[in-house]
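Running co-folding for FE2/S2 (inorganic) cluster.
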Amino acid sequence: MKWVDVADTQDIEKGKMGLVEVERKKVVIANVEGTFYAFNDRCPHSNAPLHLGTLQSKVIRCAAHFSSFDVTTGKTRTRSVEQEDYRGPTYAGGLRLWWILEI
Ligand code: FES
């Protein structure tokens, strides 16, 4: 397991998302009421970039076909997408956000 420093917590305001790149993978970080959640930028339905979607509270809605996901659990809220766990582990330490890479 490897920890990677990916962002400053002050870069992503409450209710907003940020896009970072971690070892050539695009990762979206969502700030839900001060807690940060990270997930793959690619929608599991048909690979659209999720950072172009909209975040309302803890739910992101894909801009392509409007599938929605709970960013706190990684679970889909629509029946068209079966993939459930696409969220990656994160840890907000001090003012930095960290992404854990499984090696
Ligand atoms: S690509 Fe996201 S809902 Fe289709």
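Result summary
Residues 43, 45-46, 48, 62, 64-65, 67 surround FE2/S2 (inorganic) cluster (CB under 6 Å).
Strands lie at 2-8, 17-22, 25-32, 35-40, 54-56, 59-61, 68-70, 87-88, 90-93, 96-101.
Job closed.
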